[in-house]
Amino acid sequence: MKYKDAIKVSMESLAQEPNTLFLGYNINFGSKAYGTLTDVPEDKKIETPVAENLMIGLATGLSLEGFRPIVFFERHDFILNALDGIINHLGKIESMSKGQFQCPVIVRAVIGATKPLNPGPQHTQNFTKILKDNIHFPVYELNTPEDVLKYYKIAKSSKDPIILIEKRDLYDTE
Fold first, then answer.
1. Taking CA 70 as the corner, what is the angle to CA 147 and CA 114, rounded to the nearest 5 degrees?
2. Where are the alpha helices (DSSP H) in the chain?
């Protein structure tokens, strides 16, 4: 199974859950999350503006209302704009509410592709180490199709937020 196919299977599995919603830009239009959401029903997808902190804020709020949002960041470079919401809100609500609230948000953070054309350093940065060092909930790197299936299965049942780091250069590998 190819890496991208494993992501697609995982997204379709998540879409079967009644409380899941997919958030981000280019999820209903354009690439549809690099083709990984093409078979997810449109009523499960919320197309957002290019406003990353808003996306995390929206996902946090939806999770407090019983939803499991899956937020798609098509490149690591853009997750930097959402770090305030990720670090200061999403990752701390359970502690701040003394366990009364949980935020089972799944964040898909994609490291941009360098091939067939390298878009340059602005769209291919890898912030995995920064995320792992500064976020106090699980951050997993997905290096193989088996990792994809394993960690999205974990995310599907987690009551906590989770960041899953996809690597766009691996999408066509097995």
1. 55
2. 3-15, 52-64, 76-79, 83-85, 93-96, 128-134, 145-157
From the number of C-beta atoms within 10 Å of its C-beta (0-12, 13-18, 19+), residue 174 rates as exposed
The pLDDT, as a whole number, for residue 118 is 82
pLDDT in tens, 25-77: 999 999 999 999 999 999 999 999 999 999 999 999 999 999 999 999 999 98
Element (H, E) at 107: strand 106-111
| DSSP secondary structure letter of residue 49 | -
Q: List all residues 6 or more positions away from 148 whose beta carbon is below 8 Å from its beta carbon.
A: 3, 6, 7, 10, 142, 166
pTM above 0.85?
yes
CB 125 within 8 A of CB 77: yes
Which amino acid belongs to residue 46?
A: I
